[in-house]
């Protein structure tokens, strides 16, 4: 559980930067048809497959079970499918196909990445990586196309950096063991000291050391910036990020002592942290059947209900954060 929380905290900072180029439209409540409800924030740090389809397109209808199969195979990964219906607002026909094919991935009306590829027909697909880059696009449906799409998703996921890595996606050659230790929530300062010593020299080894040091420093600055931004509007997240910061860079503890004391001494902030962690745990769990799904939903409602007692708290940002978390959990 601790590692999941640290990974989520880090992805809220590093991947927010990595995915800053990705701008999404059509994910509002009025466009939602079925499956998990999405927001741009929920897409951060994930590989996103957009499936453009329509109820009047026979190849699209034939492709639906294969898209669902793809979702079931990779949904435990940082992966999202958006079934973007683009043949009008045919909600009843969409609902019928969802029921017939037992579709569980997200379906919206005309949801898309701003600047998506132009296709002359459907079904059409494209994959967006956490940086907002389109790494695959294709059109049509056949068994061969289904295999090609599956391979493209697997390839995009394989290239993703670990969510708790501080290396910014950099693949180390000379410092592989050291790079593996540069993760959020673990003291990285001994590794940083060794890298600084290596960076003082000349040659490719020194250049790699400098690149790793730069990535780690960028991660620290990004995290500190996020903490400052969240302090007044998301104090629960800010507390979690502060705890990650001082575990990763212990030398920051003195600088963070006052803020840590203020946030950690508030019962209201602790309630928000508890809610955030509970929702993260629920979201990370894939139900195997309807009974498990029902239990997860009950746990979600219970966590939200327990936090609403603090919704009118005077502590800056608590009410705002609870409102954000409960809205995204609906």
Structure description:
By secondary structure, the chain is of the alpha/beta class. It folds into 3 domains: 19-158, Glutaredoxin; 176-265, no CATH class; 268-328. 55% of the residues lie in helices and 11% in strands. It has 13 helices and 8 strands. It has helices at 2-18, 40-43, 58-74, 91-101, 143-158, 176-180, 189-199, 204-230, 235-248, 253-264, 267-283, 290-307, 318-328, and strands at 24-25, 32-34, 47-53, 79-85, 106-109, 112-113, 124-128, 134-139. It has a 6-stranded mixed sheet with strand order 2-5-4-3-7-8, covered by helices on one side. Strands 1-6 form a two-stranded antiparallel ribbon. Helix 4 links the parallel strand 4 (79-85) and strand 5. Helix 7 packs across helix 8 (204-230). It is globular. The two termini are 23 Å apart. The relative contact order is 0.11. The model is unreliable at 1-20 (pLDDT under 50).
């Amino acid at each position: 559980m601790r590692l999941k929380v640290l990974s989520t905290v880090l992805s809220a900072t590093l991947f927010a930067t990595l995915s800053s180029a990705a701008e999404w439209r059509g994910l509002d409540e009025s466009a939602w048809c079925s499956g998990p409800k999405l927001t741009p924030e929920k897409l951060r740090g994930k590989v996103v497959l957009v499936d453009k389809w329509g109820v009047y397109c026979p190849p699209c209808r034939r492709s639906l079970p294969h898209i669902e199969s793809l979702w079931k195979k990779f949904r435990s990964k940082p992966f999202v499918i958006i079934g973007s219906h683009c043949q009008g607002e045919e909600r009843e026909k969409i609902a019928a196909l969802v029921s017939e094919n037992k579709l569980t991935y997200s379906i919206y009306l005309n949801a898309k990445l701003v600047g998506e590829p132009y296709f002359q027909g459907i079904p059409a697909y494209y994959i967006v990586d956490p940086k907002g880059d389109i790494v695959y696009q294709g059109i049509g449906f056949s068994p061969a196309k289904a295999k090609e799409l599956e391979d493209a998703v697997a390839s995009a996921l394989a290239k993703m950096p670990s969510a708790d890595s501080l290396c910014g996606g950099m693949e180390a050659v000379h410092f592989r063991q050291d790079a593996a230790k540069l993760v959020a929530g673990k003291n990285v300062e001994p590794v940083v000291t060794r890298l600084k010593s290596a960076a003082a020299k000349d040659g490719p080894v020194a250049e790699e050391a400098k690149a790793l040091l730069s990535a780690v420093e960028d991660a620290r600055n990004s995290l500190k910036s996020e903490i400052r931004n969240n302090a007044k509007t998301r104090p629960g997240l800010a507390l979690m990020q502060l705890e990650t910061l001082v575990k990763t860079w212990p030398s920051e503890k003195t600088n963070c002592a006052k803020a840590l004391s203020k946030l950690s001494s508030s019962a209201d902030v602790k309630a928000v942290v508890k809610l955030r962690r509970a929702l993260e745990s629920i979201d990370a769990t894939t139900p195997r059947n309807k009974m498990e799904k029902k239990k997860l939903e009950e746990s979600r409602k219970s966590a939200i209900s327990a936090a609403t007692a603090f919704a009118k708290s005077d502590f800056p940002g608590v009410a705002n954060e609870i409102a954000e978390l409960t809205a995204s959990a609906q």
